[in-house]
Amino acid sequence: MVGIFARFISIAAMESVLAIETSVPQASIALWGGDQWLYDKTFTSDRNHNSMLFEPLADALGCLQGKPLSAIVVGTGPGSYSGTRIGIAAAQGVAIARNCMVAGLGSLAATPVARTRAPAMAVGDARRGLYFICPITSTGEAAQPELMDEQGLRNRLEKEPQCNLFTLDDPEKLASACPQGQPLIPTTPEARLLVEVWLGLDHARRMELQAMPLAPSYLRAPFTSRAKPGHPLIRTEK
Q1: Which residues contact 91 (CB under 8 A, 6 or more apart)?
Q2: Do 131 and 150 contact (CB within 8 A), yes or no?
Q3: How far out from the chain centre does Cα 128 lie?
Q4: Among 16, 27, 28, 238, whose CB has the most other CB atoms within 10 angstroms?
């Protein structure tokens, strides 16, 4: 996949694409102007500093100098629950204000390893004794994460000896669950790589993504119990 972005520059010559990636503490915003990068900034945005998003977002939009915005892409994780939701909310707000399309992309596809090495697969700690894997598809997107226990992870990775493994976690914490001899590359998603993934997709796939509701990519269901019926102020216990 090396050099894939260059092949799409001529196709995207008239497109301006804003990308927001806040699923990890090392958040980023990038703006592609159609033939060059107009803005690209990394900043800290963890659960205590999510307000840090808005200054670089305003700076990026200012670089358009009144020109229309073609699309917004936002990283949907998996990662920080609050951080990802902040990024999605900001993307939706800008899309309404700028009257442009908005779509979510799995953040794991927007890593240097995923963009430059094929085949590639993300590996991560899903907590509570479970791990996840997330292959990068032939289109450059991140597949749906798969959960498994330590033995299941080891068995799966032994069947993928040629796969380039990467993680957003500390590789040492995953070493015991990975087969010996398979390196695990630490990396992080980047907003500008979200743009690369987006520009590499065909029109039909972009329309599919645009039609999907924006939501964080959860490793588990976001709710662990069923909500009780009725409005909280008027329902009664039975």
Answers
A1: 18, 20, 72, 73, 74, 102, 104, 214
A2: yes
A3: 23
A4: 27
First to last CA, the chain: 59
Using CA atoms, how far residue 141 sits from 69, 121, 132, 233, in Å, is 23, 11, 16, 44
Q: Which has the closest alpha carbon to 134: 158, 157, 151, 103?
A: 157
- What is the fold of 5-109+188-211? Nucleotidyltransferase; domain 5 (3.30.420)
CA separation for the pair 73, 197 (Å, rounded): 10
- pLDDT at residue 59, as a whole number: 97
d(CA 227, CA 206): 34
Domain definitions of the chain by residue range: 5-109+188-211, 116-186
Strands (E) located in the chain:
17-21, 26-32, 37-44, 71-75, 101-105, 120-127, 130-135, 146-148, 164-167, 184-186
DSSP classification of residue 182: -
How far is Cα 168 from Cα 186, in angstroms, rounded to an integer? 6
Q: Is the pLDDT of residue 30 over 70?
A: yes
